[in-house]
């Protein structure tokens, strides 16, 4: 074997890799990105969960209990409530994950009857998080109970009554079906669109199409319309399968639900078109879509891992993930029966994403033609 020639070939390959910045980014950047995302996003610990408190007693003991809960580091006060009616509104607005209700004459009942009740109401659309939050509260209340009794035999007893909203059976499928819709729609709309348009460029067909009598806008619509229809069919299929096979409810208006699905599809399509304007090969389009879309959609959207658990930097980054806002919308419509008055902000954000991606795609497209 000619070792000099062999080493020369190895050196040549390293030079090619070093010159190909995209391959270098993929080879070095992808492991770093994956390690960062999985390392910080995947955690069972929950901190700083927003809660609301309805203290009907407002005595010394109830205030001590509230202080104990808020100082634990697991919970963060969103607001004090004045009535039970406000709880449902807070949940539908997505502002809280848990509501704590302390009954009337809490301190007096502990002293006279030696027993009092604290009620916990959780948003169980995420069953695992709801279960964890109840365990946290139970542990804190139990510790507070021991402090009240001191070294004596148990005299006072604070019992806990829990109530699960939107998923009383704590079925995980309620949580995963809406997330599955977001992943499938992103996969079909953005990934397949970017590869399809890039394929035309790679084969040299795009230039031929642009000089044809058909307008460029009509060409783009013709390219993305099949994927729009396929994505809508898939969305309807998953919703029907979730409803009839797994019993996942659709409490909101079905037309409104499908309209939001269509909006998310358009957002994903515009993102796919944007990727195609920056990619010269199908392989590049696929890798950009996989790393830039699929991983963030699964990890940073709240599909599997609660965003509240993540470091603040990842929480900020999650705001630029369209799937995060779509998941809030679709879970609220399906599980809480929310209407546009509760999800208008998230809807406007998706509209803004779509317009931004389209304008940026047009800008990149014009630059390539110059």
Descriptive notes:
- The mean pLDDT is 81.
- It is built from 14 helices and five strands.
- The chain has helices at 3-19, 21-41, 60-70, 85-92, 106-112, 127-149, 173-202, 205-210, 216-244, 254-278, 282-299, 312-318, 322-336, 340-369; strands at residues 49-55, 75-80, 98-102, 115-123, 157-165.
- It is α/β, with parallel strands linked by helices.
- The protein has two domains: 49-165, 3-Layer(aba) Sandwich (abc type-2 transporter like fold), CATH 3.40.1710.10; 173-369, no CATH class.
- Strand 4 (115-123), helix 6 (127-149) and strand 5 (157-165) form a beta-alpha-beta unit.
- It starts with a helix and ends with a helix.
- It has a five-stranded mixed β-sheet with strand order 2-1-3-4-5, sandwiched between helices.
- Helix 10 runs parallel beside helix 14.
- The radius of gyration is 26 Å and the shape is elongated.
- Low-confidence spans: none
Gyration radius, rounded: 26 Å
Average pLDDT works out at: 81
Largest sheet: 5 strands, mixed
Brief summary of the model shown:
With 370 residues, the chain is α/β, with parallel strands linked by helices. A five-stranded mixed beta sheet has the order 2-1-3-4-5, sandwiched between helices.
Write the layout of secondary structure elements.
Elements: H1 3-19, H2 21-41, E1 49-55, H3 60-70, E2 75-80, H4 85-92, E3 98-102, H5 106-112, E4 115-123, H6 127-149, E5 157-165, H7 173-202, H8 205-210, H9 216-244, H10 254-278, H11 282-299, H12 312-318, H13 322-336, H14 340-369
Parallel strand pairs: 1-2, 1-3, 4-5
Antiparallel strand pairs: 3-4
Helix pairs in contact: 2-11, 7-9, 7-10, 7-11, 7-13, 9-10, 10-13, 10-14, 13-14
């Amino acid at each position: 074997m000619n070792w000099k020639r062999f080493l020369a070939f190895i050196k040549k390959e390293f030079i090619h890799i070093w010159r190909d910045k995209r391959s270098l980014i993929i080879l070095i950047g992808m492991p770093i990105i994956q390690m960062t995302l999985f390392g910080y996003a995947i955690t069972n610990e929950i901190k700083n969960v927003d809660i609301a408190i309805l203290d009907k007693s407002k005595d010394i003991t109830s205030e001590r209990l509230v202080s104990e809960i808020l100082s634990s580091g697991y919970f963060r006060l969103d607001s004090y409530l004045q009535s039970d009616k406000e709880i449902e509104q807070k949940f539908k607005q997505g502002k809280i994950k848990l509501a704590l209700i302390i009954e009337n004459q809490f301190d007096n009942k502990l002293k006279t009857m030696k027993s009092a009740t604290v009620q916990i109401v959780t948003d169980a659309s995420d069953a695992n998080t709801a279960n964890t939050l109840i365990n946290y509260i139970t542990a804190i209340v139990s510790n507070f109970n021991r402090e009240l009794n001191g070294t004596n035999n148990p005299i006072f007893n604070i019992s806990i009554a829990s109530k699960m909203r939107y998923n009383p059976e704590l079925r995980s499928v309620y949580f995963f079906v809406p997330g599955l819709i977001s992943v499938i729609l992103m996969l079909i709309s953005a990934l397949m669109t970017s590869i399809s348009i890039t394929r035309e460029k790679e084969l040299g067909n795009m230039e031929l199409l642009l000089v044809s009598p058909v307008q460029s806008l009509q060409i783009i619509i013709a390219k993305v319309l099949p994927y729009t229809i396929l994505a809508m069919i898939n969305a309807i299929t998953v919703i029907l399968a979730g409803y009839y096979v797994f019993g996942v409810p659709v409490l909101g208006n079905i037309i409104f639900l499908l309209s939001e699905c269509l909006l998310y599809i358009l957002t994903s399509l515009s993102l796919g078109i944007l990727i195609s304007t920056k990619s010269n090969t199908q392989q590049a389009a696929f890798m950009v879509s996989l790393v830039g879309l699929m991983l963030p959609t699964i990890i940073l959207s709240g599909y599997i891992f609660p965003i509240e658990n993540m470091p603040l930097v990842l929480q900020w980054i999650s705001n630029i993930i369209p799937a995060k806002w779509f998941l809030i919308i679709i879970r609220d419509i399906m599980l809480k029966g929310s209407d546009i008055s509760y999800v208008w902000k998230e809807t406007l954000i998706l509209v803004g994403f779509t317009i931004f991606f389209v304008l940026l795609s047009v800008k990149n497209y014009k630059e390539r033609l110059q």
